[in-house]
Design goal:
Elements lengths: L9 H23 L22 H10 L7 H30 L9 H22 L4 H26 L10 H26 L22 H4 L17 H31 L3 H23 L4 H25 L4 H16 L5
Helix pairs in contact: 1-3, 1-5, 1-10, 3-4, 4-5, 5-6, 5-10, 6-8, 6-10, 8-9, 9-10
């Protein structure tokens, strides 16, 4: 059996992946505690490196930003998120530099670490615009998508550097296509979740399975998904009326139903292909996420459950990245090598 070696940078990539999970959850916590404008400037806070704590610094802060009184707790929620995000950016920079230095090594990814560096630079810009454009929903949603994209790419890089999970050969093109569709739909559902959060539409409906006691309540899709709404007002708390928020909320619900059906089909196809563990992992992640989504509605968005719902979305995304990684197409020669390795692995316990 050929030996698959873990490449240098694997541990750093895994650390970056774990750190990205923390950053995503801190971002969710910041949004849910209405602390997105806890610091009215960027990258500092009222002109300081940290939240102004002394009376002197707070008086200076109020002079500089008279329309943004200091709220220490919200300020620290925002700044802790920035500190962790900045640290993640430095770690990704390290991964990119390491990839450039080792670009001649067989199996060392180069494009992926450089793509990650580009994404994290864009994330920094979105973080700045989130503050300077006063939580404009388009920017907030884009920032959330960037965070999940960073997490997914870091996990993919970790898988590639690990050398521990080979491609599964001999699988049908239809199964790979279905897994790809599921991943795209999950990304769309995450985007819808970001739109729900940035427009404060999570509690637009407080009953299930109906909304306001109706199967199809009054909804304003034109304003709910008006992506060219003007920049200017402070979007903290949202600017949309009830019908527009209901339209956003219901679209997210319908998206969840559609995604769940696709994932159930994917799990069934995986099990039929002899990949019961991947199918079980997918079903576990799906069940947890659906349960958290239902709990958010019935319990009226408790903070812990709402943050956990973001964690569930991240977990489901990573499971789909793993599935697509294992099912990806490979050249015929490489596929034959993998099949031989798997055959050796099965025969090893028999002493052959």
């Amino acid at each position: 059996m050929s030996e698959r070696k873990t490449l240098p940078g694997y541990r750093l990539a895994m650390f970056a992946t774990a750190l990205a999970v923390v950053v995503v959850l801190l971002g969710a916590y910041t949004r849910l505690t209405h602390a997105g404008l806890g610091c009215p400037d960027w990258p500092g806070c009222y002109g300081f490196i940290g939240v102004p704590m002394s009376e002197h610094k707070q008086s200076l802060a109020e002079e500089r930003f008279p329309h943004a009184p200091v709220e220490v707790e919200k300020g620290w929620n925002e700044m802790v998120h920035r500190y962790f995000a900045g640290t993640l950016g430095l770690v990704i920079l390290g991964l990119a530099v390491q990839a450039l230095r080792r670009r001649a090594v067989d199996g060392q990814p180069l494009k992926l670490p450089l793509l990650l560096l580009g994404v994290v630079i864009a994330q920094a810009a979105f973080g700045m615009w989130t503050v300077t454009l006063k939580l404009w929903p388009q920017v907030v949603t884009g920032h959330l998508l960037g965070g999940f994209t960073t997490l997914a790419l870091l996990f993919l890089l970790s898988l590639r550097l690990s050398g521990a999970l080979p491609v599964l050969p001999g699988l049908s093109l239809r199964l790979r296509a279905l897994a790809g569709v599921a991943l795209v739909l999950a990304g769309c559902q995450i985007a819808l979740g970001g739109w729900v959060s940035s427009n404060y539409a999570a509690v637009a409906c407080v009953d299930l399975p109906t909304c306001h006691g109706e199967w199809w309540p009054a909804m304003d899709f034109a304003n709910g998904f008006h992506l060219t709404q003007h920049i200017g007002p402070n979007y903290l708390g949202g600017q949309l009326d009830s019908d527009a928020r209901t339209a956003i909320h219901m679209t997210h619900r319908l998206g969840a139903v559609a995604l769940s059906l696709v994932l159930l089909l994917l799990a069934w196809r995986l099990r039929a292909a002899g990949l019961g563990r991947l199918a079980g992992l997918l079903l576990l992640a799906l069940a947890a996420q659906v349960s958290l989504g239902v709990s958010n509605v019935l319990l009226h968005l408790p903070l812990a459950v709402a943050v956990a719902h973001n964690a569930g979305g991240a977990a489901l995304l990573l499971v789909l990245v793993l599935i697509n990684y294992r099912l990806r197409a490979v050249p015929l020669a490489a596929s034959k090598r993998v099949e031989a390795d798997l055959a050796d692995t099965r025969l090893a316990p028999l002493g052959k």
